[in-house]
Specification:
Helix content is about 40%, strand content about 15%. The chain has about 325 residues and is an alpha/beta fold. Strand 2, helix 3 and strand 3 form a beta-alpha-beta unit.
Length: about 325
């Protein structure tokens, strides 16, 4: 993920006056800030919380905690502890909002926003709705025409991806690996040829087994990184092949785990694997030379190579 940054747009002292359209939208220096308040009444705000180090909390989260009329927290005790560490006093009503009650709570939060309340939603760590409660709430809110906004912040997914040393240009987040052996085998099997870098969450007591299963499915030498206790005092990142990491984790690992696995390497195309496509086109009336050219354009293989392989198949 990347973005292009353009010039700063500042005018020098010799620049002409801005045109009328621009001048009409320019505020004087002494005008009040347009967004001095963090929260807008009637809008649900999803706010990211620190994944370990409370110092990572952005100022906007602090203000939102102070301004909210209703704070929906995954664990209210943890939220109170975070507020205490931040030196913030939560004056709004505090409501539990977790995976087991999201279905029932979502309409209540939407109604509160419809009544003009400033509703703040936080999870224990990171961004709500990313492997945490929030997805159903956003769907319920948007279906009801209630606005939803986000206060961005720490993310275990992006933090692990950035520090893993693996490719970051294309990646996917797969959440937690299924617990049951059969479900896990099917889920990993479906990802065996995934070319993008994959990010997973995993519990420490299942990590060794998951790494071993990945080594069997993805290949023992597939590169990966185990990111443990990110941003915390005992942060650790172990990089290596899946089989080696599984052996390292076997004695036991503690802490919050984010697992990053390299995508599948590209498989070199072989002419003999695509001869059936060439012959299917000839069966449909195409000349062999034209059929070989069509399949070559699809696969990147050479026309002559495909033509010769098709001739040999025909005998």
């Amino acid at each position: 993920m990347s973005s292009d940054v353009g010039p700063d747009g500042q005018h020098g002292t010799d620049d002409p006056e801005p045109d009328a359209a621009v001048a009409a939208t320019t505020e004087p220096d002494d005008a009040p800030a347009a967004h001095s308040a963090t929260m807008t009444p009637g809008v649900i705000l999803l706010a990211a919380t620190p994944i370990g180090d409370a110092a990572d909390a952005p100022p906007r989260l602090r203000r939102a905690l102070e301004e909210a009329d209703l704070v929906a927290a995954e664990d209210t005790r943890r939220l109170r502890a975070l507020a205490a560490r931040l030196g913030v006093r939560v004056t709004g009503r505090l409501l539990s909002f977790h995976e087991h009650n999201e279905h029932e709570r979502a309409p209540e939060l939407v109604r509160a926003a419809q009544d003009g309340a400033r509703v703040l939603v936080v999870s224990d760590a990171g961004m709500p709705s990313v492997s945490d409660p929030g997805y159903r709430l956003v769907r319920t809110a948007t279906d009801a025409g209630v606005g939803v906004s986000v206060a961005p912040g720490p993310s275990a997914v992006l933090t692990a991806l950035a520090i893993s040393g693996l490719a970051t240009d294309r990646f996917c987040f797969e959440g937690f690996v299924p617990r049951r052996a059969g479900d896990r085998a099917r889920a990993l099997g479906a990802l065996a040829e995934e070319p993008r870098t994959m990010v997973f969450f995993e519990s420490p007591h299942r990590l060794a087994g998951t790494l071993a299963d990945m080594a069997r499915t993805f290949g023992a030498d597939r590169p990966a990184a185990v990111c443990r206790e990110l941003t915390k005092t005992y942060e650790e990142v172990r990089r290596g092949a899946l089989a080696a990491l599984a052996a390292w984790a076997e004695p036991g690992v503690r802490g919050e785990i984010t697992l990053v696995v390299a995508g599948a390497p590209p498989v070199a195309a072989r002419a003999e694997d695509h001869v059936d496509q060439v012959l299917a086109l000839t069966d449909g009336g195409a000349r062999l030379k034209d059929a070989a050219a069509t399949v070559a354009a699809r696969t990147g293989l050479g026309k002559r190579e495909l033509y010769q392989a098709a001739l040999e198949r025909r005998g």
